[in-house]
């Protein structure tokens, strides 16, 4: 990891800020200016010592250049440039490890999360909430197929996992330092953050808000990526897919034994019949199919275990701007 901390600033008088805002960015160059204008005007009014941490998650456009420029114009804006695209969850984790505020706010760069709501988040936090989250009142801009799949996923997740996800929770939220520390202390690499927020507990308050349409650019989530994300979410929060094979096996084995007994008795009493290759083939194919499916699921969990055992860092930083050289706490 190479750190090129050319500028080192941390709030005007070197004191740590009350509010840290972290923004993951992947190909968001066109949104940088408007986002920062709106964000700075809201946040500076709440806490003049604020810090904004922009994380460039391996963008292929001019995002990195734009955010480095922003750090040069405003000493309270800092940025991390990751060495490649690690995904939003890792980018957020990089932001969390570098945030020094008493409360940390996560917000998307595409202005789908109106920065003005931060005022309400802050007020709720001051009232004693430890995790204040933006609750989506609509799923704007999603096609019918995608929203059906999303709903089915959440229903399946609720059925197979003990963790109760918060309704309408996205990645727009405020976390007290206690929650941030709790999240950073979880060592897992495959991170389904919605599940983790629910798992850590703490005092939560929902703030409903209307999701705005994306300002510029395109959502980076393809259907395949969503599917893999959903599979990862379920296998990291539930062992039901592993255990279910015992029951499926039992349900299939019992009738098979009964049928076996029946054939045995029939042969013993009536002698050898012309063997039924068709039914034999059907049974062989059916059982081997079921077994391969079961093996696949076990393979998925094995892969996950391997992933965790490798203990690779969640992200690597290429350059940092606006930070003091000493602060960094990547998962090691
Ligand atoms: N993002 C990221 N890395 C990625 C994909 C997305 O940092 O690999 C950021 C993106 O720049 C945005 C936020 O995560 O700030 C949400 O992404 P997007 O708008 O694509 O997702 P959606 O709003 O469709 O959930
Ligand atoms: Mg978006």
Distance between the termini: 13 Å
Give me the secondary-structure category: alpha/beta
How are strands sequenced across the largest beta sheet? Answer: 7-5-6-4-1-2-3-8
Largest beta-sheet details: 8 strands, mixed
Number of helices: 10
Number of strands: 8
Helix content: 40-55%
Overall 3D geometry? elongated
Radius of gyration: 26 Å
Quaternary class: single chain
Bound molecules: uridine-5'-diphosphate, magnesium ion
| Secondary-structure element string | EHEHEHEHEHEHHEHHHE
Q: Note poorly predicted spans.
A: 1-13
Instruction: Return the average pLDDT rounded to an integer.
Output: 80
Task: For the structure shown, list the relevant keywords.
single chain, 332 residues, alpha/beta, 8-stranded mixed beta sheet, 48% helix, elongated, disordered N terminus, binds uridine-5'-diphosphate, binds magnesium ion
In short:
The protein has 332 residues and is of the alpha/beta class. 48% of the residues lie in helices and 14% in strands.
Structure commentary:
The chain is an alpha/beta fold and 332 residues long. It is built from ten helices and eight strands. Strands 7-5-6-4-1-2-3-8 form an eight-stranded mixed beta sheet, sandwiched between helices. β1, α1 (32-46) and β2 (51-56) form a beta-alpha-beta unit. α5 (144-160) packs parallel to α8 (223-237). The longest helix has 34 residues, at 277-310. The two termini are 13 Å apart. The model is unreliable at 1-13 (pLDDT under 50). The structure holds uridine-5'-diphosphate and magnesium ion (MG).
